[in-house]
């Protein structure tokens, strides 16, 4: 389930902006669940992390990857 970002249309006491966990098929919120003020759904930035298990990232962090070559034989990647 994605996290949706909402912004209050009127100033108030609730934190600005707030996040809501909802299904894609659920309709967007019309009012804040805490204070009841009207809200608007905002586009959220897409977060994409690099491949943390890539050989270059592992070596950079001081780790190494081993691959199984044959029965019982391992080699460094």
Description:
The chain has 77 residues and is mainly beta. It has one domain (3-42, 50-76). Helix content is 8%, strand content 26%. It has one helix and five strands; from the N terminus they run βββαββ. The chain has a three-stranded antiparallel beta sheet, with no helix packed on it. A two-stranded antiparallel sheet has the order 4-5. A hairpin with a 5-residue loop joins strand 4 (66-68) and strand 5. It is elongated, with a radius of gyration of 23 Å.
List the defining traits of the structure above.
1 helix, mainly beta, 77 residues, 26% strand
**How big a fraction of the residues is strand?**
25-35%
Low-confidence spans: pLDDT under 50, at least 5 residues?
none
Average predicted local confidence, pLDDT: 83
The gross shape turns out to be: elongated
Radius of gyration: 23 Å
Number of domains: 1
Number of strands: 5
Please count the helical segments. 1
Please summarize the sheet with the most strands: 3 strands, antiparallel
* Major β-sheet strand ordering: 2-1-3
Helix and strand sequence: EEEHEE
């Amino acid at each position: 389930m994605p996290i949706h970002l909402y912004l209050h249309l009127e100033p108030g006491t609730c934190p600005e902006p707030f996040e809501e966990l909802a299904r894609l098929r659920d309709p967007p919120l019309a009012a804040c669940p805490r204070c009841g003020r009207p809200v608007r759904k905002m586009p959220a930035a897409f977060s994409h992390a690099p491949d943390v298990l890539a050989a270059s990232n592992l070596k950079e962090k001081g780790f190494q990857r081993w691959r199984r070559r044959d029965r019982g034989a391992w080699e460094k990647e």
